[in-house]
Amino acid sequence: MESAIAEHLKCPRTRHRRVEDDYVPPYPVWSARAPVSVKQVVMGFFGVQSRGSGMQGRACAALMKIARDFALPDGPGHHDLTHYVDAQGFDNMVAIAYWSDSAAYARWCATPAVDAWWRSDERLSEGLGYFREIASPRVEHFETMFNTPDRFEGVGVVMGSVSGELQEHGYWGSMRDRIPLSQTDAMAPSGTRAVIAGMPAPGQRVRIAGHENIAMIRSGQEWTDTTGQERKLYLEDMEPVLREGMDFLRDQGLPIGCYSNRYMRHLDAQGSPLQKSFGLSYWRSLADMERWAESHPTHVAIFGSFMRYVQALNFQLQLRVYHEVSVLKADKQSYEYVNCHAGSGLMNGLAPSSA
C-alpha cells in the first residue's frame, strides 16, 4: 500500500492527514501516476449548445469539427465526446480533451485553423452556442482515484502509469488528503468570479475570470460490464439516486457553493450513448464540496445507495467508478462563452436576475 501522493511530490507536512499512518482502507483503489517530467496538465471542455431537434445535426457537425482538430499537431493525448441537457432545456455536446504538456496545448490552441475558427464572427450567427472551459492545474493541485487499475478515464489516460493500492481513501476528508498541495496549504478560496468581457446573454462573446482555489470534480461510472443482479441494482436503485443528486446541484447548487453541475453521458464517434456517465461540477472551494459530500441529504443518499450496492455484491464489482479533483489557481482557469444562454457553465448566477 502506498500514498496517493507520488514520492517526488511529497514534502514536510505542516497540515495533518485525517487518518493515522496505520490506517487500512476497506477496499482497494488506485491512482494514475505521471512521469516526474510532467509538471502541469490541461483539461479542456469544448462545448456546442443547441435547442430543439432541428439544430441537432448542425450541433453534431460542429462537435465533429472540434474533434477532428484534436488530430492536428500538438493535439490532446485523449478526448471524450459527451452530452447533457441543462436546466434551461438546451442540449450541450462537449468534447473533453486532456494534454500532459501545457506548452503543447498552447501551440495547438494557437494553430491558425483552430484559432481562426473560434474567433470568427460566424460563431455568433449559426444559431449555436459555443464554450471553452480550460483548467490547467499543476500536478500538485489535483488527484485521481479509480476502483480498478486496468482502465483509466479522463486525465488518467494521459498520465501514463498506475500507483499501487492507495491508503488515503474510504474516509471523509480523503479527497483533500490525496491532493499534494494539502500537505502545506488549506486551499481556501479568495476573490469572486467576474465577467471580464461581454455580458452573460445570448449573442455575446463572454469571458469569465475564476478566483483562487475554485474546485473542479469529474466523477464517473461505467456499467458496460455489469450483468444480472448488479446491472439491475445499478440501473434501478443506484442511478436514480445519483441522478437526483446531480439534478439538485444543477438546479439548486449555487447557495451551497456549486457554481455549475453537469450530469453527462459519453457518446461514441457516431453520437450514440455509451454505458458511461459522470458528473462535472465547479465549486467555490474544496471545503464547499466536502460539506455537500459529508452532510447534504442528496449526497448522503448517493453514498448510502453505493454502500448498499457494494455490500449486496460483497465488494465484487463489475461497475467501474473514478474521479478526478482539481483545485485551481486563478491564473490556471479560462472560461469563454459564445452565444450561450446566461446560465451556462461559470456564467451561472452572474447575469442580472431580469436577464
Order of helices and strands: EEHEEHHEEHEHEEEHEEHHEE
Contiguous low-pLDDT stretches (5 residues minimum) are none
Distance between the termini: 53 Å
Number of helices: 8
> Which whole number gives the mean pLDDT?
92
Shape: globular
Adjacency order of strands in the biggest sheet: 6-13-10-12-11-3-4-2-5-14-9-8
Number of strands: 14
The fraction of residues assigned to DSSP E strands is 25-35%
The structural class is alpha+beta
List its salient traits:
355 residues, alpha+beta, twelve-stranded antiparallel beta sheet, two-stranded antiparallel sheet, 8 helices, 14 strands, 26% helix, globular
Give the helices and strands, then pairings:
Elements: E1 32-33, E2 42-50, H1 56-69, E3 78-85, E4 91-99, H2 102-110, H3 112-119, E5 129-135, E6 142-146, H4 156-159, E7 161-162, H5 174-178, E8 194-197, E9 205-209, E10 214-222, H6 228-252, E11 258-267, E12 273-283, H7 286-295, H8 297-312, E13 320-328, E14 333-338
Antiparallel strand pairs: 1-7, 2-4, 2-5, 3-4, 3-11, 5-14, 6-13, 8-9, 9-14, 10-12, 10-13, 11-12
Helix pairs in contact: 6-8, 7-8
Structure explained in plain terms:
- The protein is α+β, with helices and mostly antiparallel strands and about 350 residues long.
- About 25% of the residues lie in helices and about 25% in strands.
- The protein has eight helices and 14 strands.
- The protein has helices at about 55-70, 100-110, 110-120, 155-160, 175-180, 230-250, 285-295, 295-310; strands at about 30-35, 40-50, 80-85, 90-100, 130-135, 140-145, 160, 195, 205-210, 215-220, 260-265, 275-285, 320-330, 335-340.
- The strands form two sheets. The chain has a twelve-stranded antiparallel beta sheet.
- A hairpin with a 5-residue loop joins strand 11 (about 260-265) and strand 12.
- Helix 6 packs antiparallel against helix 8 and helix 7 (about 285-295) packs across helix 8 (about 295-310).
- The longest helix has 25 residues, at about 230-250.
- It is globular, with a radius of gyration of 20 Å.
- It starts with about 30 loop residues before the first strand and ends in a 17-residue tail after the last strand.
- The mean pLDDT is about 90.
- It comes from Variovorax gossypii.
- InterPro entries: OXD.
